[in-house]
Design brief:
Belongs to the mitochondrion-specific ribosomal protein mL46 family. Helix content is about 40%, strand content about 20%. It has 8 helices and 8 strands, in the order H-E-H-H-H-H-E-E-E-H-E-E-E-E-H-H. Strands 1, 2, 3, 4, 5, 6, 7 and 8 form an 8-stranded mixed β-sheet that branches.
Length: about 270
């Protein structure tokens, strides 16, 4: 009797496994038959223009290293020349030596005074610019210590969103060529960038609302390519496109959460 029960359990278990496998195979086949539009997206970065402001502990550590280097360093040629000239001047005043007036025409101290005067006239450029004060998110002359990322306004379905520039892949193009064409169509010829490579650095997919699935595609698969701005002085040269240059903190507030989570994985 036990043998019959065990055989019945084995049979039922095998039948359930077979049905599950069939269900999974059917689902996988249905998903493989779905049509997806391929897009290339472009991450355009404006790298930091100035070094980051040191934190208090970093400034203190830097000061300590400078002091150690000063204590262990040898005297420079300028310092040795200054000491030599000082000794010669004392001997000259005592009448023990006679030097040509040309020898002391421009001393090391004269050079040092000229350098200090030139340094006093030097005024470093401000780290906080006018674009920071007005919060002009279209300007490249802001947040000089941080990396800025380009977003452009694009229409998805019936709504417009700020996204990384993206364009539909055309037959015969590589995905890198699609990315280059997309950036040119979105931003014009003024914006000059350097692409890091031919391989995408990120991926994101989303499904279309049922009302806009006209050609049968269920959604879009976006492959992102990284690029860096060549000249931070050259911005987008057209007013036809709405765009923003945002820091990573600002991106998190602007982008949809699921989209940002994918993009943040390949942000430096």
């Amino acid at each position: 009797m036990r043998i019959l029960v065990n055989r019945s359990l084995v049979y039922v278990s095998r039948m359930l496994c077979a049905r599950t496998a069939t269900t999974h195979a059917t689902t996988a086949a249905a998903q493989s038959e779905q049509k997806w539009d391929l897009y290339a997206g472009v991450l355009v970065e404006r790298l930091p223009i100035v070094t980051k402001t040191l934190e208090p502990i970093e400034a203190k550590f830097k000061e300590m290293l400078n002091q150690i280097e000063l204590e262990k360093s040898l005297k420079s040629n300028h310092e040795l020349r200054k000491e030599t000239e000082k000794q010669q001047l004392e001997l000259l005043k005592a009448g023990k030596i006679d030097l040509d007036s040309e020898a002391l025409k421009q001393t090391a101290q004269d050079l040092e005074d000229a350098y200090n005067e030139e340094l006093s006239r030097f005024k470093p450029a401000p780290r906080i610019t006018e674009a920071d004060k007005t919060n002009d998110i279209r300007s490249l002359d802001r947040k000089l210590e941080e990396t800025l990322v380009l977003l452009v306004e694009q229409k998805l379905g019936t709504k417009s969103h700020y996204l990384l520039p993206q364009g539909l892949h055309k037959k015969g193009e590589s995905m890198r060529q699609t990315a280059e064409r997309t950036l040119k169509e979105c931003c014009g010829d003024t914006l000059q960038v350097t692409f890091y490579g031919n391989a995408p650095v990120g991926f994101y997919k989303y499904k279309y609302p049922p009302s806009v699935r006209n050609d049968g595609a269920v959604g879009a698969k976006v492959f992102f390519f990284r690029s860096v701005l060549k000249d931070s002085g050259k911005n987008i040269g057209t007013d036809k496109v709405k765009y923003q240059w945002l820091s990573q903190d600002e991106l998190q507030k602007q982008l949809h959460q699921s989209y940002y989570q994918n993009v943040s994985q390949f942000l430096l």
